[in-house]
TrEMBL record:
PROSITE patterns linked: HTH_TETR_2
Classification via InterPro entries: Homeodomain-like_sf, HTH-type_TetR-like_transc_reg, HTH_TetR
Keywords for this protein: DNA-binding, Transcription, Transcription regulation
Top-level division of the source organism's lineage: Bacteria
Name this protein carries in UniProt: TetR/AcrR family transcriptional regulator
Entry's Gene Ontology molecular function annotations: DNA-binding transcription factor activity; transcription cis-regulatory region binding
Ranges where the HTH tetR-type domain occurs: 24-84
Residue ranges the UniProt entry marks as DNA-binding: 47-66
Length: 223
């Protein structure tokens, strides 16, 4: 029997879960630092050393948790919460057109509210290198998998509709208009700093989606 002053060391599952939580916290810290760095400085000079300095950690941890720089880029691209926001439309199900209207509305609003993501998207447009291509591919793959989830909730799009192209065009339009809101503030006479203008844009998106995918009862329902 040990006396009352003995020190007991915990080596059970609780200690292991604490280490796992610490690892996850460090991963998130590194990812957040990488995002901050990208938004502030772009992809020029973006690398393991720069991210480690921004995160205030040893660069060895980036290799440990992400298997190097490429793994870090893949993890950034795969984080849907970065690109899609809170995903309020996750619970929406039913007719494909109805789900897509909800998805695009949530995506556009989340994008407009996230200046960090808009800055990263802007850098992707003006710089083409291995880093931008890799993070872009990982992001595209993740969003593609997410759209597969949309299809599981709603079923396939109507026969004869080229959903892949239409959805890509709508998302590209959302990106461009959101970026213009931060730069010039207008596009072809539209005042993108006016909330009423964005209400009109959302209504037109809804009209396009309804025209392409129809409404649950086969009619043109209002936006």
């Amino acid at each position: 029997m040990r006396d009352g002053n003995a020190t007991h060391t915990t080596t059970g599952p609780a200690n292991g879960s604490g280490r796992a939580a610490a690892r996850e916290a460090m991963r998130e810290r590194i990812l957040d630092a990488a995002l901050t760095l990208l938004a502030r400085d772009g992809f020029a000079g973006f690398g393991v050393n720069a991210v480690a300095r921004e995160a205030g950690c040893d660069k060895v941890l980036i290799y440990r948790y992400f298997n190097g720089f490429d793994g870090l880029l893949d993890s950034l691209g795969a984080r849907l919460d970065i690109w899609l926001g809170p995903e309020d439309s996750d619970g929406v199900s039913g007719h494909y057109g109805s789900v897509m209207r909800s998805v695009l509305q949530d995506y556009l609003r989340a994008l407009r509210a996230n200046n960090l993501v808009k800055q990263i998207l802007a850098w992707e447009l003006v710089q083409d290198d291995d880093a931008t291509r890799r993070i872009g591919k990982a992001k595209g793959d993740a969003i593609g998998r997410w759209f597969q989830g949309v299809r599981q909730r709603s079923g396939p799009p109507p026969a004869g509709s080229d959903a892949a192209v239409l959805n890509a065009v709508l998302i590209a339009a959302a990106h461009h208009l959101a970026l213009r809101e931060n730069s010039s503030g207008d596009f072809m006479g539209l005042d993108l700093r006016d909330p009423n203008c964005w209400a009109r844009i959302e209504a037109v998106f809804n009209t396009i989606i309804t025209g392409a995918y129809g409404a649950p009862d086969g009619t043109e329902d209002p936006p």
